[in-house]
## 1
Amino acid sequence: MQTKARVLVFIVAYNAEKTIAQVVSRIPASLLDTYDVEVLIIDDSSHDETFATSHSVSKDTNLPFRITALFNPVNQGYGGNQKIGYRYAIENGYDFVALIHGDGQYAPECLPELLEPLRTAQADAVFGSRMMTPSGARQGGMPLYKYVGNRILTWLENKLLHSSLSEFHSGYRLYATRALAAVPFERNSNAFHFDTEIIIQLLVAKKTIKELPIPTYYGDEICYVNGMRYAVDVVISALKARLQHAGLFYDRKFDCAPGEDSPYQPKLTYASPHSLAFNRVKPGARVLDIGCAGGYMAEWLANDKHCKVDGVDAWPGSGDGLNAFYLHDLNSGLPQLNYEQYDCVLMLDVIEHLTKPEAFLDDLRRALATNTGAEIIISTANIGFFVTRFMLLIGQFNYGRRGILDLTHTRLYTFRSFERTMEQSGFDILERKGVPGPYPLALGDNFLSRTLLALNQFLIRISRGLFSYQIFLRIKPQASLELLLRTAQEHTKKRVEAIETVQT
C-alpha cells in the first residue's frame, strides 16, 4: 500500500485560551483519509492560560489527531514561533506543513482543498488569499483601512519583486517541507514581516506558489501588529531584495537562488567589457581568453570575426567558438602555453578574483615579452562608482553574488589604482575607457534600461572615475630588461662591425 503523505497542522498561538480548543476541533477529520496528520500547537509565552488549554486539548481522546503542545518560555515573536514550527516539521520528516492561527481568523475547514496542490505536486507553497473573491474581504469584516493597506502593499511588493500574487499578507500558508528546507528561513525576522521575507525567498529560489481563495473572518480577536511599522518593514524587505537582484545590495537571507554552472552571463548587446573587447579584436586574430567562462566571447568572435580562440578557466569550458580549452585554476599561476602564437589576450572581469594579481600580471608580461605585437584587453569593477560611494556614505558595504562587490572578489580598484597596477607590472596603457552599469542585465532590455545606459555614458564623459561602473583598458607589455639588453648587445655588435668595415 502507498504510504500516506505526512502533514503537520501547525497552530501559532498567543493569548488564545478562548479560541484554541475550537480551532483544533474544526480541523476536518476527513484529512485522515488521505494524510497522516499531527497537530502542533506552540504557545509563544502567552500571558493567559493558552498553554494549559492546549495541553488539555492534546490529552482529549475524542479528537482524531495526534496533538503536541509546546511552550516557548521566552516570547519569540510571530516569525520566531514559525521558525520553531517549521524546524519541527523538517526534523520529524513531515511532507507538508500547514500554518493556521490560534485565534480562529483562518478557517481550518479549508485545509483539504489547500493541501491538494501540494499533494499533487502542483506547487511548493499554497497561500489562502482573502482577495481572490471580489468584495469577500470587506464582507468578512476586514476593516477598510486594513483592506486598503493590504492592496497598496501587495501592489508595491508585486512591482518590486516582479510577482503577481493577489495577497502578500495572508497568514494561511501551507508549504512542502522540501521547499522550506531549500530556503534560509531561519535568517528571517522574528517579527510579523517574516511572512513577506519567506515569500521573497521562495520567489528567489524559483519555487512555485499557488493561491486559492479563502473566506475572511474578523471577530473580536486582538491584533498585535503595529500597522505602520509592519508596512515599513515589508517595503524595506522587498526593496532590499530588488536591490540585491540588481547587484547593489546583499543580504544572506535572500541568497537562495538555484545554483548555476557558472555565475557569469554574457553582456554582448550593449556597452560592456564584452562588447568593447569584441570591437577591438581584429578579424582573424588568434585570441587567448583567460577566464572564458562559458565561451560566450569565443563563439561571438569565431562566428563574426573568424578568430581562433583558446579558452582558460576553472569552470568546464563550453561554447562552439572555442578552438581549444584549458581547465586551469588561475590562482595557481599562469597556465603553461605558447604565448608567442597569440595576437590578443582577453582578461575580462578576471583580475579581481585573483589572490595574487600582481604576480599573475608579472608572469603574463614575461610570457608576452618577446611577442611585440600582442595586446591585452583587461577590465575590472570600479569601486569608485557613485552608487558604491553613496552606499558607503549611508554605512553600507555589502558583498553579493555579482556586481562590484562580488563575494568572490579579492581585490578592488579605482581607475587610478588599476592603471598604476598595470604600469608597475610593466604594461603600457594604449586605451582607457569607462563602462556604464549593466542596466539591461538588471532591469531587462527595455526603454528604461537603455535610457539609464545612455545617461550613464553621458555622465562618464563628465567624471570617468565617479560614474564608470567598470574600468576597461587596452594595454601592451613593455619589453623586458633581458630583451632590451640582448637588443642593445646585438645592435652594438652590428654597429661595431659596420664601423670596423668602414675603417678597413
## 2
Amino acid sequence: MQRILIYGLFWALISGASMAQDLRAVARVEMAASGITDTQDGVDMSLALTQAVPYRIFALDAPMRIVIEFREVRFEQALDALDRSERVETLSWGAGPAGWSRLVLGLGVPMGVETAALETDPNEGTAVVRVRLRDVSRTAFAAGAAEPDGVRREPAPSAPPDGAGRTGRDDDRLVVALDPGHGGVDPGAQRGGHDEADLMLQFARALKEALLRGGVDEVVMTREEDRFVSLPARVSIARAAQADLLISLHADALAEGRATGVTVYTLSKEASDRASATLAERQDRQDILAGVDLRAQDDQIATVLMDLARAGTKLRTERLAGHMVTGLRGQLGELHKRPRLQAGFSVLKAPDIPSVLIELGFMSSQTDLSRLTDPDWRSRAAEGIVDAVTAWAADEEARK
C-alpha cells in the first residue's frame, strides 16, 4: 500500500566530486533553479543548493505545516520570490535547532510528504532537494505530524565509575546485543533487488533465536523492525540492556575491488586497509546525512574515563573477535582472505562492552549475495556466531 504520509529523515549518498566536500559546511539557495508548483493533487517543490548538505523533513500540526531542516543553509535572499502555491499559504525561514536552518511551509490544506530526495551533480557538487507533497485527509495528517524521534540527540554512553570491563550487573546471566545495520530511511547497500538493512534484520532475528536456543539468557536488538536508529543510539541501547557483548551485523558493498567472504572488525583509530576505512566512513556519513551530528558524541566519548574503560575492554574484545573467526570458520569454512580487520566504526565505541562488527559478506560480490540469500548458509553462519559466543563466555568465566 502506498504511504500517503511520510515524516522523518531523508538522505542522499554523495558521490563523485561532492564526496570530498565538507557536508557540514554552509550552503546557499540558488533561487533561479528553485520553485513551488501546484499539481492536480498536491505540490511539487524544488530547492537548488550550492552544495549537498544533510537535511530532514517532517510534518507538524496546529497549525499544519511541513518543516525542512538543513545542516545548514544560508537563506540570503527572500524566498518570497518563489512561485506560490494555493496549498502553501505561508513560507518562512530562519535558524532551527543548534547548527540547523529551518524552512517552514504553512499549509492551507493537509498534505503529506509522498517523496523527498536530494540529487547531486557529481561534477559541480551542487544539489537539488525535491519534495512532492500530496493531499491527505485531516486525520492522516494529524496522525503523522510529530518531531522525528530519529534525530533527537541521545546522550553519549557514560563510563562505569571503576572502568570495569562488565556493565555493572550482579548476576551471571549472559546478555547479547545484536545490531542489524542500517534501517528505515537508510537501506544500506542495495544489489539485485535486496537491501542490506532487510537482509541484516532477517539474519538478526534468526540469530537471536539461535542464541537463545544455544543458552544465551537474553538477546536485545537495536532495532526490531525497519526503522532508522542512529549509531550513538545503537550503543546506548546495548548499554541500557547491560549487555555483555555487542555484535553489529552488516553486508556492505565496495565500488572497487573484489572483496568477498566474512570479516570480523574491532575498533581502531587506524583502519587495517583503505577498504576498511571507506566502510567506516560510509557508516558515519549515512548518520550525518540523516541529520545526526556525531561530532558531540565523539567529543564526549574521547574523555579520559572512557579511554581507560575502553583499554580495559580491549583484550576482551580481541578475544571475542578471535572466537568469532574460529566459530564462523568452523561452520562456513572459507572466510575473507583477512578475516580479522580493524576500523573506526562508531557503533563499536562503547567503552565498557566488548564489541565486534561482522561483515557477513559484500553485496557487491555475486557469490556473497547468493550466500546471504541462502537459508542454509545463513543458518550455518548463525550457528558459527553461537559457537563463538559460547566459547567466549566460557573463556571469560575461566579468567575470573
